Amino acid sequence: MSEPGLLQNLDRLHLRPGEQQLRQRSFDVAFNEARFVLNVVPNHPQGLVLLTQACEQLRSPRCAVEEAFQTAIAVNPRAAGTYTTQGIYLHRKRRYAEAIESFKHAVDLDSSSLNAHYNLGLSYLETKQYELANQHAQRAYALGAPFPGLRTKLQQVGHWKPIAAPEPQATGSSPQQPVGRQDEAAKK
C-alpha cells in the first residue's frame, strides 16, 4: 500500500472515528485510536492532537503524551507541525516557557506557519512579553489567521500595535536625491 493510501486509511478508519468517540466522551476508545495511529505514523499531527485531547480527559498514567512527542520528534525533527502541536499541549498545561521554545522551533522550521505564530503570540501574552506577542500576532494575521482572540486580548492590555508595512520605493530615485525632492524638481 502506498503511503498516501496508508494515511487515508488511517484517517478514515482510526482518526475520524477516534475524534467522533472523543466528542461522544468515549475517551478510552479515542485514546486507543490515537495510539494506533501514532504506532503507525508516530508524528501524525492529528493523531498527536487526538492523543492529547483524550489524555486531558482520562488523566491516566498510561497517557504518555510527552513520550509520544519525543518519539514524533525523533522520527522527524524537521516537522514544524509536531512542535506546534507540542507547544499547544504545553500551553494548555500552563508550561509557557516550554511552549514558547516549542513554538519558536516550529517558526524556525516553517516561518509561514500561522498556527505557530498565533500560538506563540498567545504564550508570549501569558508571560506578559507583550511586544513579542504583538510581533507574532501581526505575523499570524498577515498570514491569514481567522481567529480574533489574540488581537482582542492584546487590545485589552493596550498592546495591539499594527506594524506598518515598508513603504514602496519610487522608481527613479537615487540615494542622493530623496523622492519628495524629485517631485518638486519635476513641477518646476
In short:
With 188 residues, the chain is an all-alpha fold. The protein has 10 helices and no strands.
Give the fraction of residues assigned to helices. Answer: 55-70%
At CATH level 2, the architecture of the largest domain is: Alpha Horseshoe
Q: What is the CATH superfamily label of the largest domain?
A: Tetratricopeptide repeat domain
From the spread of the alpha carbons, the general shape counts as: elongated
The major β-sheet equals: none
Name the helix and strand elements from N-terminus to C-terminus, one letter apiece.
HHHHHHHHHH
- How far from one another are the termini? 75 Å
What is the domain tally? 2
User: Helical region count?
Assistant: 10
State mean pLDDT (0 to 100 scale): 88
Describe the structure.
- With 188 residues, the protein is mainly α.
- It folds into two domains: 1-74; 78-164, Serine Threonine Protein Phosphatase 5, Tetratricopeptide repeat (Alpha Horseshoe).
- It has ten helices and no strands.
- α5 packs parallel to α7.
- Mean pLDDT is 88; it is low at 172-188.
Labels describing this entry:
disordered C terminus; elongated; Serine Threonine Protein Phosphatase 5, Tetratricopeptide repeat; 0% strand; mainly alpha; 188 residues
Task: Describe how the helices and strands are arranged.
Layout: H1 3-23, H2 27-40, H3 45-58, H4 65-75, H5 80-92, H6 96-109, H7 114-126, H8 130-142, H9 149-156, H10 179-187
Helix pairs in contact: 1-2, 1-3, 2-3, 3-5, 5-6, 5-7, 6-7, 7-8
